[in-house]
């Protein structure tokens, strides 16, 4: 398996050069625009990942051409209705279950939590933000473990917008599953607010029908001594793009960003991940794994980690690994790391894409296991290293079965 690994640390006597501070326009806790106040976002080169232009107004973004850094690997022609068109932002059917201190409610656009975790950095996210009428809020309180599941199966084929908030009170403990199935043509934003000392797992499952198209941006703010486990699972859909952006905002905050995906023929699965170490003594781990089979299967993973100037004592590592099962597939994997302080515990990144490990296959076959079975065991083990970290047994079992179905080429 071809592999590129780079581990970086800084010399305390020669810290990285600082960067300019972005200008914020607007009022209150929800700025309308972040970027250069005089020239917008097209004339000034972005010096660091945290300085990208951002706005809640779709009109503030120019039309997408496909030449933009954030869109150049995405089939934008298939997503035109979500990027440029009008979206239905009305309330949609949803099935929810909640236990313990979790509850699920709808709120209006005036809710003060909207916009506190982050705001859009691309036109599709801004289009969804400009279009939604109500937000679905998963509120978690109490120190006893809670669970909440949100299942969407009836979104339909019309282009629509959605906005979801996961709001965890200080010291809350919960697992929240956002389970997506059926047909959809969806652009959405998900905000995750993790209070001080909370321990929250958020799992987003994209198990769509084959014709679904889904563009999502997840924004998370993690408080002091809090922990967020964020998991992206993408198996279904024609084009699925889920971009998590997590800020470790409080001292001692901890973030685990995990992902698992399986792309079949002509399927496009994408995640652009941003982990921002803003506060001191934060810890971050990013690990995404995927498998590809079939002509035209395409996966994209871009991982950006930024260690800010105040993030002393940071410990961070990101990696992406892809297993190519057949000819005719393409896996794009781009890890990036920026460090703006000279005092860190450690930071690094890795990327690997390749075929089966011949030694593993030989080991299994030498013990009497047929080659086809051996290959399936290797793939299942490769992806299960992420699945088994979810921490929800019934969901883990369902995903294991989905992996078996993918390997067997069965319809799910």
UniProtKB/TrEMBL annotation:
Disordered as annotated region, ranges: 1-45
Classification via Pfam families: SUFBD_core
Biased amino acid composition, Low complexity: 18-29
Residue ranges of domain SUF system FeS cluster assembly SufBD core in the record: 158-382
InterPro entries documented for this protein: Fe-S_cluster_assembly_SufBD, SUF_FeS_clus_asmbl_SufBD_core, SUF_FeS_clus_asmbl_SufBD_sf, SUF_FeS_clus_asmbl_SufD
SUPFAM superfamilies with a match to the protein in the record: Stabilizer of iron transporter SufD
Biased amino acid composition, Polar residues: 1-10
Family the UniProt entry places it in: Belongs to the iron-sulfur cluster assembly SufBD family.
Name used for this protein in its record: Iron-regulated ABC transporter permease protein SufD
Species assigned in the record: Amnibacterium kyonggiense
